[in-house]
Design a protein that fits this description.
This protein is mainly beta. It has helices at about 65, 195-205, 230, 245-250, and strands spanning about 15, 30-35, 40-45, 60, 80-90, 100-110, 120-130, 135, 140-145, 150-160, 170-175, 180-185, 195, 205-210, 220-225, 255-260, 260-265, 275-285, 290. It has two domains: about 15-35 and about 185-300, Immunoglobulins (Immunoglobulin-like); about 40-180, Jelly Rolls, CATH 2.60.120. It is about 5% helix and about 40% strand. The strands form five sheets. Strands 1, 15, 16, 18 and 19 form a five-stranded mixed beta sheet that branches. Strands 4-10-6-7-8 form a five-stranded antiparallel beta sheet, with no helix packed on it. A four-stranded antiparallel beta sheet has the order 3-11-5-9, with no helix packed on it.
Amino acid sequence: MRMKRTSTGCEGRLVISWLTALLLLLCCASGSVQAGIGQPPILQVLNGSLGQLSKDSFNLVSDTLFFDHAFDSVLVKPYLVRNKVTLKINPYSPYALQGTFTATVKLELTRTAADGTITVLDTSLTVRYNKDSLITDQDSYIFSNSYSVKVKILDRSTDVAWDVWKGLEIENELQSFPVYIFSCASDTVQSVAHTSLDSATTADELPVNWANVLGADQYDLEWTYIDSSALANPRHLYGNPGPDPALIFDNNASRVTLTGTSYNIPIFYDGAGTLFFRVRPVQLQAGGGRTEGHWSSDQHDHRQRKLL
């Protein structure tokens, strides 16, 4: 159930997107690199139901990020790449398997390494099927660190007279784990955008969003609300002459960790006051560690505020 605000209006309410200087003790002082977060696999298929499992048929997968020199300044090369070539029964083929069979394909794999070296390897994959007992429905050749792989069919053989190839396919798969240089000081969220407060009061939440930071795997979003009477008190504990983020977020702040670049902050506060919020990028490390960038509150004069 969504919580409702009991106040009837927002006059006098301020929403501040904090862009001030704050050094985090948990953040690195210089650049670091991550172990590499897996990208979605690149997959090319030779589909037997389309007549693609014939001699000399081929396909190609390539890590375009690795070969794009526009990213040379932000990537640590080489990084891990995992490769797999699989002969398998295609469960979605419109052609039914007619009975027990064994099918073997001889493949030529042309692989490109990080230094541009090209090697050619021959391998064979075999699928065995028996409708009344066990099934070996796929056979794979697994290797790594080939940034481009061409798979070509050299030969094929089977022990049945009917066209078993219409029910098979060959998958050429490449998954990369790019490593980005990450600087806690420079790779930061420069600003946090938000909708108008009028829209937020209707929905009882304030949508905020920010630009993606290259090399960030997650984002920490932090917010806190301070009643206007507390800020007006000359003896308040939030900094002088202006509110200090280190003091504002020291106690009673809420935080979420996100993989996206937007969030709806719930608005269920009574009376008039100020909602403070800030964001920092996070890069995940091998072994479960995390490198935390500077908060967005590092970027501008702490007295800057937006009245909504």
